[in-house]
Amino acid sequence: MSNTDQIAYWNGQAGEKWVRHAERLDALLEPFANEILETVSLIEGEHVLDVGCGAGALTLKAAFCVGDKQGAVGVDVSQPLLSLAERRASERAAPASFEKADAASYRSERPVDALISRFGVMFFDDPVAAFANLRNSLRPEGRMTFACWQSLSENAWARAPLEAALPLLPEPPAQPPPGAPGPFAFADKDHVASILTDAGWKGVAIHPWLGRVTLPGDSVSDAAQFMMELGPVARLVSEAGADLSQVEDALTGTLATHTDQNGRITMPAAAWIVSATAS
Ligand SMILES: C[S@@+](CC[C@H](N)C(=O)[O-])C[C@H]1O[C@@H](n2cnc3c(N)ncnc32)[C@H](O)[C@@H]1O
């Protein structure tokens, strides 16, 4: 249960890039924060834990829902993202605090009423052990709601950069095994349900979120640059020795076909909204 690779990844360039683009990422992912909070229905005075909180956008929203009696705690392994989360909390005087910890072994000092996460729980080497551990921090009547991505094939916004790159690579990249830690590890909802059940969670309910996301940027080339920098495509292209600017041109062509009437790029996205109770 070491999670070493992901901890190094989120403390390296990935963490720095997420910090640099935090406002844009939060705008892209805001619909999911709203959906999580609507589903989990926080009550004033509850203690809430945001797992894999990143720069804390969801933690801060949750903190203002529960008020300052117990507040909200965000846990993450990424120092660059936690530093930004702490800065944001102090600027907004939010009743939120942040802890650097691996959620797979973290134990809350105070019993948790509600565990939430926006795309922060798909990175565990041993997800059953991690979710069993997280459950131990909840009150017996505690609950959990998180969002995770459906498959890459259902998420055109994430697939487009890879599709632009593939014809330009000397050979197709190796596919990670299904369920390997990463953004699409929980694409299979039956797999997610069995992880949670094996970890002792009850009443598992998984609902689809199907919609469109608006990519950051005021122009197609802005959106393409953003996708080139943040997706897995940048590493893929440089490792394979393909020409980055050719890939960006191809991606720009694809994204242009998704321009809405306001000139923004909106593309299909699909997530699971997963809920369960501790007992
Ligand atoms: C896709 S980002 C989502 C960040 C944030 N929840 C948001 O919506 O902006 C995934 C986050 O999970 C964190 N993470 C990955 N593995 C973790 C672990 N074992 N324990 C705690 N956080 C982890 C990463 O550092 C990163 O901040």
Radius of gyration: 19 Å
Largest sheet: 7 strands, mixed
Named CATH architecture of the domain at 4-152 and 178-212 and 269-277: 3-Layer(aba) Sandwich
Order of H and E elements: HHHEHEHEEHEHHEHHHE
Side by side, the strands of the main sheet go 3-2-1-4-5-7-6
Give the number of DSSP strands.
7
Uncertain stretches: none
Query: On the 0-100 scale, what is the average pLDDT?
Result: 94
Helix proportion range: 40-55%
Q: How many H/I helices?
A: 11
CATH level 1 name of the domain at 4-152 and 178-212 and 269-277:
Alpha Beta
Strand content bin: 15-25%
Distance N terminus to C terminus? 24 Å
Structural class: alpha/beta
Shape: globular
CATH topology of the domain at 4-152 and 178-212 and 269-277: Rossmann fold
CATH superfamily of the domain at 4-152 and 178-212 and 269-277: Vaccinia Virus protein VP39
List the bound ligands: S-adenosylmethionine
Name some characteristics of this structure.
alpha/beta, 7 strands, Rossmann fold, 279 residues, 7-stranded mixed sheet, binds S-adenosylmethionine, 11 helices
SSE arrangement:
Blueprint: H1 4-11, H2 13-20, H3 22-40, E1 48-51, H4 57-66, E2 72-76, H5 79-91, E3 96-100, E4 112-118, H6 127-135, E5 138-149, H7 156-165, H8 189-198, E6 202-214, H9 220-230, H10 233-240, H11 244-256, E7 266-277
Parallel strand pairs: 1-2, 1-4, 2-3, 4-5
Antiparallel strand pairs: 5-7, 6-7
Helix pairs in contact: 2-5, 7-11, 9-11
Structural write-up:
There is one protein chain. The protein has helices at about 5-10, 15-20, 20-40, 55-65, 80-90, 125-135, 155-165, 190-200, 220-230, 235-240, 245-255, and strands spanning about 50, 70-75, 95-100, 110-120, 140-150, 200-215, 265-275. The chain is α/β, with parallel strands linked by helices and about 280 residues long. Helix 7 packs across helix 11 (about 245-255). The two termini are about 25 Å apart. It binds S-adenosylmethionine. The site of S-adenosylmethionine (SAM) has 23 residues, from helix 1, helix 4 and strand 2.
